[in-house]
Amino acid sequence: MRTLIALSAFLAALTCAGQAPPPNFGTKPFGVLLLTKVGGADWDKTVANVHKRLGLRVPLETVVGTPSPPDIRRALERLKAGRAEKIIVIPVYLHTDDDELDQLRYILGIRERPSAAFMNAAHAHMGGVLIKRAVSGFKKLTLVMTPALDADPALADVLLFRAAKLGREPKSEAVVLVGGGSSDPAAREAHRTILGRHVQALQRLGQYRGVRAVLVNPGAADPRDQTPDLSQARGTRLPSALDPGQELREAVRSFSGGGHVIVLPYLLTPDGTERVYRKILDNAFILWDGKGLLAHPRLVSWVNAKVLEGAGLPNMVRFRDEGKPQAPPERRRVVR
Fold first, then answer.
1. What sign for the dihedral angle of Cα 98, 30, 107, 296?
2. Which helix or strand (DSSP H or E) is residue 6 part of?
């Protein structure tokens, strides 16, 4: 508890009067490693603002993209060279259960074996490859990793800000929050639950006439490529049951009769997915800007809160070997 209080005071001192203190060449209580799968100007702006909040005395490194042991190791080495006594890894990801973060926990020595979902699904060619850990060879390494954004209230605040910029009269407007689905049923339901919490927050804080969240499965095709369903009266062209954009179009349609519909893509930064969502709603009259959640100041505050959270966590590094192969597939015993 004393350590956490001291670190809290340390962070407060760094941002006092909006001025960064002069560099300190002694040991630092901690260093920060920010990780994300997205980059671009919004991410760079977020990192710059985080650095301003933390100050020059806190070593800060970033890694963008798919977790790579060499990239992670180089970042860890720079933090250790900056004399950070503890490294706080903060994944700026939407979901803690992301396959990439499972793989990252292996790379950081937090979990014993690689992520089977990561190695076999998105990177099928890597299935039989032995991936080395980034922490092997470090004699002394105190490292923790915080959860991702998930259902944190910071995201609801950013979503409310974006909706308010697009609309004017919340009581006559509806909001549709659209995020990416998952091929894994359990992950899909977990993501739907998280979006549901954001829906409740938007409804409570924004007082909109309606708020709804939908998921669009990965690889959603152009709606014009979908097989039409001509079974309804008047020859209406309706999406088939296999149409991944059906739920999104129905959500917008259900709100369209009572006023403006605001559609918010649930993305950190635009990555092309927002164009898929917009194409699905090609002929719909909606309020839309296609922007992501970064680089809102509320998310900078979230990073700062995660630094404090990580400062109070015990060391998570359990495995310092060079690497382990994937766990062998479970063999089922045949009973005759």
1. positive
2. helix 2-15
- Where do the domains of the chain lie? 2-149+297-311, 168-280
Scored b (16 or more CB within 10 A) or e, 273-295 reads bbebbbebbeeeebbbeebbbbb
CATH level 2 (architecture), domain 2-149+297-311? 3-Layer(aba) Sandwich (3.40)
Helix (H) or strand (E) holding 210: strand 210-216
Domains 2-149+297-311 and 168-280 fall in the same CATH topology = yes
pLDDT tens per residue across span 49-105:
999 999 888 999 999 999 899 999 999 999 999 999 999 999 999 999 999 999 999
Does the domain at 168-280 match CATH 1.25.40? Answer given as: no
Q: Quote the tokens at residue 216.
A: 């669009």
Amino acid at 38: V
Of the candidates 268, 266, 270, 273, the one whose C-alpha atom is nearest the C-alpha of residue 295 is: 268
What phi, psi does 33 have (nearest 5°)? Answer: -120, 115
Helix (H) or strand (E) holding 87: strand 87-91
Torsion of CA 73, 79, 80, 86, to 10 degrees: -110
Backbone angles phi, psi at 291, to 5 degrees: -80, 165
Match 């990239």 to its residue by tokens. Answer: 71
Question: 206-257: per-residue pLDDT in tens?
Answer: 999 999 999 998 665 444 444 333 333 333 333 344 577 999 999 999 999 8
Query: What is residue 335's three-state secondary structure?
Result: coil
Could you tell me the pTM of the whole model?
0.83
Q: What are φ and ψ of residue 108, in 5° steps?
A: -90, 0
Q: What angle do CA 242, 218, 94 make, to 5 degrees?
A: 135
H-state helical runs in 118-257? 153-166, 185-206, 246-255
Tokens of 13: 């001192």
